[in-house]
Design goal:
Layout: H1 18-25, H2 30-40, H3 50-55, H4 59-73, E1 78-80, E2 88-92, E3 95-104, H5 124-147, E4 162-168, H6 180-187, E5 189-195, E6 201-207, E7 210-213, E8 216-219, E9 231-236, H7 242-251, E10 259-267, E11 278-283, E12 298-301, E13 318-323, E14 326-330, E15 338-347, H8 350-358, E16 367-369, H9 372-379, E17 390-398, E18 403-410, E19 416-423, E20 429-438, H10 441-456, H11 476-480
Parallel strand pairs: 3-4, 4-9, 12-13
Antiparallel strand pairs: 1-2, 2-3, 5-6, 7-8, 9-12, 10-11, 10-15, 13-14, 16-17, 17-18, 18-19, 19-20
Helix pairs in contact: 2-7, 5-6
């Protein structure tokens, strides 16, 4: 079967969306283009309209839908797209959730139509009004429209939690906005910080009854409105973008020899007295972590819903909820949470390879010994301690958590082996390298570290091909089971 592609235009040239044209034609879009096609291979189209809409006026909505499919299908969920609506039935740990995607789009009439002034160009008082009034109204319109679809009455959705997933595409800098305005609308609460003379930060909660802009006014507290007890949660992200697919493609090894990519932004600061998020900037050639598809997701849980969803369900997402009249967030499953970021992607062509010949990369590299328990928790598999063939005698990980390493002793031949594991596209650790029949433990460790330095000098962090070294030796079957 030939590979499917998103990038053979199937609509008239004048109808092609500018962003679609950019991905098709830009050399710098190679990682995003290849990653989008990679995800699209397993994506089904029950109503037969996806491809044409992705290439034309429906680009943003369909792009977000493809992002959600990437998240669910590569985060341990079983995904059912056999129905025209809602968009997904996602199953994990015995629970099935129905998910409908929607987007915040530009308005051409009414109070929300008008100038395209970006948030960065607004005066401080304009920014506050925008966050407290206009953005909640913009989120409210598509959410209320989806509520009226009454998905919970469909035969294939009855008894399932219903989730609405939303992302904003209404202006060119829409993705700089965090979840503050959406949380305010969903729960009818506005939070603001008050810095005490002691240096401590006090968070205050202010009830919100409505959101008003010019002649338009809507009630706040979406989760308290009629019929919303059927909505278990709202999923939000500002990361379901071209930049996300570029970074994920780069981590898969797409375009690494020709592209330079730098990500800059802010991530959540867990210090309760910190007024501001933490600034970050890194080159994708030396990523500080392996980015997941769920990084940047926030799950807002409805306190009044009929079918609550466990906080463990949405992998890698921040969990938002209300407790004692305050909006709270649980970062247990998303300790590194980007609030907003921009990714600069530059096609440098052969210059990158030539520069690496003159100035070979010598990036930061730290490989630490870790406890056996930590290794097994990350791998998700443990070789029996009474295994008659081999015994684990050392466990390692690099500081970004990209790779795991383990040293084995052969109980029969009394020689040594070393193994390196990396994540596959489902983010599960799999063997990508092994070396056996080594004379001493130290020679095994030396080979392991030498190979690790080479692996860490490449931006590739996700291995879909299982690496390029055969798995052999007396422990090969045991290793493959992991």
């Amino acid at each position: 079967m030939s590979e499917k592609t998103l990038f053979n235009p199937s609509v008239d040239p004048e109808k092609l969306h500018p962003s679609f044209r950019c991905i098709c034609e830009s050399d710098a879009s190679e990682p995003a283009r290849r990653m989008l096609n990679n995800v699209y291979q397993d994506f089904s189209d029950p109503d037969g309209t996806f491809l044409g809409e992705f290439q034309s006026a429906g680009f943003n909505a369909r792009f977000f839908e493809l992002y959600l499919f990437a998240y669910f299908s590569r985060s341990g969920f079983l995904v059912d797209r056999s129905h025209e609506s809602p968009d997904f039935l996602a199953t994990k740990d015995g629970l099935t959730v129905a998910v409908e995607a929607t987007t915040v789009n530009p308005s051409t009439s009414g109070a929300l139509a008008g100038s395209e002034v970006t948030f960065t160009d607004m005066a401080p008082e304009e920014r506050l009004k925008y966050l407290q009034e206009e953005l909640p109204i913009r989120f409210g319109s598509p959410l209320f429209s989806k509520l009226k679809k009454r998905y919970w009455e469909l035969d294939h959705c009855k008894g399932f939690p219903i989730v609405i997933a939303i992302e904003a595409f209404h202006q060119k800098d829409a993705h700089v906005f965090a979840d503050t305005s959406l949380a305010s609308y969903l729960y009818g609460i506005w939070h603001y910080g008050d810095l005490q003379k002691s240096g401590n930060l006090r968070i205050n909660a202010q009830p919100v009854g409505k959101h008003k802009l010019k002649e338009k006014s809507i009630p706040s507290n979406f989760f308290a409105q009629s019929d919303t007890e059927n909505i278990s949660a709202v999923l939000f992200t500002n990361c379901g973008t071209h930049a996300k697919f570029s970074r994920m493609g780069y981590l898969h090894g797409y375009g690494c020899d020709l592209i330079d990519m730098v990500r800059t932004g802010y991530f959540f600061n867990s210090d309760p007295d910190a007024m501001d998020p933490t600034f970050f900037s890194y080159n994708l050639d030396e990523p500080p972590l392996v980015e997941t598809w769920g990084e940047g997701l926030v799950a807002f849980h409805n306190p009044h819903c009929l079918h609550p969803i466990p906080h463990t369900f949405f992998v890698s997402a921040v969990q938002g909820y209300v407790k004692d009249g305050m909006f709270m967030t649980d970062h247990t499953y998303a300790p590194w949470h980007p609030i907003s970021s921009t990714t600069m992607v530059r096609h440098v062509g052969e210059a990158k390879a030539k520069l690496s010949e003159v100035l070979p990369r010598r990036g930061r590299c730290a490989i630490s010994s870790i406890p056996k328990k930590a290794f097994q928790q990350m791998w998700g598999f443990a070789i029996s301690e009474d295994n008659p063939l081999i015994e684990e005698r050392g466990w390692f990980a690099d500081e970004s958590g990209s790779f795991l390493e383990v040293v084995f002793e052969d109980k029969i031949d009394h020689d040594w082996s070393c193994v390196i594991l990396a994540r596959d596209q489902l983010f599960q650790f799999r063997v990508i390298f092994c070396e056996s029949s080594l004379s001493t433990r130290w020679s095994a460790v030396d080979i392991l570290h030498e190979k690790m330095v080479k692996l860490l000098s490449s931006p590739k962090r996700i291995y879909t091909d299982g690496g390029n070294a055969p798995v052999s030796g007396p422990f090969s079957d045991k290793v493959r089971m992991g």
